[in-house]
Design a protein that fits this description.
147 residues; alpha/beta; Rossmann fold; four-stranded parallel β-sheet; 4 strands
């Protein structure tokens, strides 16, 4: 995360006109897990987070603790963050529970809308872990651009 904050963001901002209030972090699979980790530990780093088919199972216990601390923080401090969680329909049958974990996380976080966290879950019909990417990217761009 230090690389993103200290090197990547400043470099991009020096080359392109960036609206810092609309920064988005997108990740799929382990990248989706990373996006959730950043959301929970450094929520102000981005305005919008997109976690597609996040590999929550890979690091579930530490992520749940980070989630608990994040929720506690939100109860004390209002933020303005959008989160899109998504998974392919065909991921329902995978033993890693990618689809179920993403849906359950969305269900746990959705009640925090009053604290400034706006959560959406999208299941992509007929898509698996890899085939979900084109549909997810399309949805992610629209999701991040809506405000």
């Amino acid at each position: 995360m230090a690389f993103i904050e200290e090197e990547l963001k400043p470099e991009i901002e020096s080359e392109l006109p960036i609206d810092s209030g609309r920064r988005t972090l997108f990740g799929h699979s382990l990248g989706g897990l990373f996006a959730l980790h950043v959301l929970f530990t450094r929520p102000a780093a981005f305005r919008t987070y997109i976690a597609g088919s996040p590999s929550i199972h890979w690091n579930e216990r530490p992520l749940r603790e980070a989630e608990r601390q994040f929720v506690s923080r939100l109860e004390r401090e209002t933020l303005n963050i959008d989160l899109l969680l998504a998974a392919g329909e065909l991921e329902k049958s995978h033993p890693s529970r990618i689809n179920a974990n993403a849906r359950e996380l969305a269900e746990r976080l959705s009640p925090l809308a009053g604290c400034g966290l706006h959560v959406e879950f999208k299941e992509f019909e007929g898509e698996g872990h890899v085939s979900v990417l084109p549909a997810l990217i399309s949805r992610a761009v629209r999701f991040a651009s809506r405000r």
